[in-house]
Specification:
This protein is α/β, with parallel strands linked by helices and about 210 residues long. The chain has a single domain, classed as Rossmann fold, CATH 3.40.50.150. About 30% of the residues lie in helices and about 25% in strands. It is built from seven helices and seven strands. The chain has a seven-stranded mixed β-sheet with strand order 3-2-1-4-5-7-6, sandwiched between helices. The model has no long low-confidence stretch (mean pLDDT about 90). Bound molecules: S-adenosylmethionine. The site of S-adenosylmethionine (SAM) has 18 residues, from strand 2.
Length: about 210
């Protein structure tokens, strides 16, 4: 999302979070993430930011959550916020070096990162993510999508407010997975509301479950 520097997650994590809670599809995102984590025990969220979407998992019984992010400011903020929850762990690390630990997670959530990176880096990050998935586990990728048929607020959002310069179409997403050598186990598109209001639901997101190759 295009935000001024003083409102960036690094400089002002609290204000950034408030902005996201108001206009970042927070309500619909958290309910989607929670549904993906149902029945799983170990969840890794790559690019967890301030832990803003980690709240989705708080009420899931027996969950062990790890969030990683390269931004030390947001990880410091998340650690403080979740300090009373021993089953929530936050690590400041680049995904590409974290893979060296060879964890196996039931669910690896890779959300909201690809539209900030070009294809070459996207493929590198996707490949790194798969090595963190347990044999029976799932890599879930969630990304805002561009669709030429969409009109209204979402069109304006993508044009003027979205900071990511690589918002892709559904076909471009699948081509990227293909080039990364990943198998798409399931795919769907969901329409989310930018705000917590029941309508309009005009922000298009792709939800892809990828199998461990
Ligand atoms: C837009 S936020 C996504 C927040 C949340 N996951 C969501 O779905 O709304 C993307 C995050 O990815 C982090 N990030 C980008 N590249 C990364 C990398 N190589 N390793 C770990 N985190 C990374 C950024 O610092 C940023 O906090």
């Amino acid at each position: 999302m295009k935000t001024p520097a003083w409102l960036s997650q690094t400089h002002a994590p609290f204000l950034w979070e408030v902005f996201q809670l108001l206009l970042g599809s927070h309500k619909d995102k958290t309910s989607l993430y929670r549904s993906l984590a149902q029945g799983r025990t170990t969840v890794l969220e790559i690019g967890c930011s301030t832990g803003i979407t980690a709240s989705a998992f708080q009420k899931l019984p027996g969950i062990r959550y790890t969030g990683i992010d390269i931004d030390s400011s947001v990880i410091g903020y998340a650690k403080k916020k979740f300090r009373k929850r021993p089953n929530f762990d936050f690590v400041c690390e680049d995904l590409r070096s974290f893979t060296e630990r060879k964890h196996g997670y039931d669910l690896v959530l890779f959300a909201g990162i690809l539209h900030h990176v070009d294809d070459a880096l996207g493929i590198e990050l996707l490949r790194a993510s798969t090595s963190l998935v347990d044999g029976q586990g799932t890599l879930a990728v969630i990304e805002p999508l561009f669709d030429a048929r969409d009109r209204g607020f979402n069109r304006l959002w993508l044009k003027y407010l979205e900071k990511g310069e690589h918002v892709r179409t559904n076909d471009q997403m699948k081509e990227l997975f293909d080039r990364a050598g990943l198998h798409v186990r399931s795919e769907r598109q969901v329409m989310m509301g930018q705000t917590s209001l029941p309508l309009p639901k005009d922000a298009r997101f792709g939800v892809y479950e990828l199998a461990n190759p």
